[in-house]
């Protein structure tokens, strides 16, 4: 009797197991499946149950998770879009206006190209972060290299414009004979070769992809490279301050020597000094926080501090077209002609002042 009951129980147990296997097509001895006995199937969360009984569905579940978009990245992408639109307009005006071929306009055009690339780099960085797998080294190195090249070229072009302004006042009589278009093109080519070389350094091995402990606040740039770039910027800023100080001294001296209408020249020179001060303040306010933070911080610092210093630095490329292009009377005339087909009388008759330089 006992043996009969045991045999019947064994048969029922065997039949139930076969029925379960035929309906769900799960092999208990399949090594590709992960079975967990510690989780309760009656748990209110369905994730452990899916992971235990349906391993084939797990990759699809993970792939369906959407990465949360950071508002800081959105702000940088919007800033990049604004930068691209502004500087594309400047490049179009310079390209389609044959009279704007002087050395000054070549430097303004080079600055606009660098800022345009910086804006496109910010947009591509957003795309690479949220639409493309950024774990691929090529994508990371391409994004960072473009941003380093573009922003470095922007800073060096601003320095070149400052030097050009200083020479136009210091050597006013021989400026137009010494500062030829060929010389300006050679200087622009030197700037871009230098900046593209800086952008290629991460791709040539100067990165922290293999040793994350050496990363700076901008991965994959190493801490040492970030410090070198920041110190270089501080030297450029110090040189610009010295040049603008000399420009102010020369402007005041010229105003005293050739002034006929003393009151007008005093107002004009004061306006020029105020403009130069605003240019320096805007440049320093945008870039100094990021440069100093790059020196003292590394990848272990909170990322919000990096965003808070990077965003003002990118805003410098928003301000550059307004300071160096849209304030120029010749570019203003070209814009009026392109948009309205005419030039306002007050603009065409307005004399050039030191604030326009």
Could you explain the architecture of this structure?
There is one protein chain. This protein is an all-alpha fold. Helix content is about 70%, strand content about 0%. The model is unreliable at about 1-65 and about 350-355 (pLDDT under 50). Belongs to the G-protein coupled receptor 1 family. This is G-protein coupled receptor 12. It comes from Xenotaenia resolanae. It is a multi-pass membrane protein.
TL;DR of this structure?
It is a multi-pass membrane protein. With 357 residues, the protein is mainly α. The chain is 72% helix and 0% strand.
What descriptive keywords fit this protein?
single chain, 357 residues, disordered C terminus, receptor
Topology:
Blueprint (H helix, E strand, L loop, with lengths): L1 H23 L22 H7 L4 H6 L7 H26 L6 H28 L6 H34 L4 H4 L2 H20 L22 H36 L3 H35 L6 H24 L2 H11 L5 H4 L9
Helix pairs in contact: 4-5, 4-11, 5-6, 5-8, 5-11, 6-8, 6-9, 9-10, 10-11
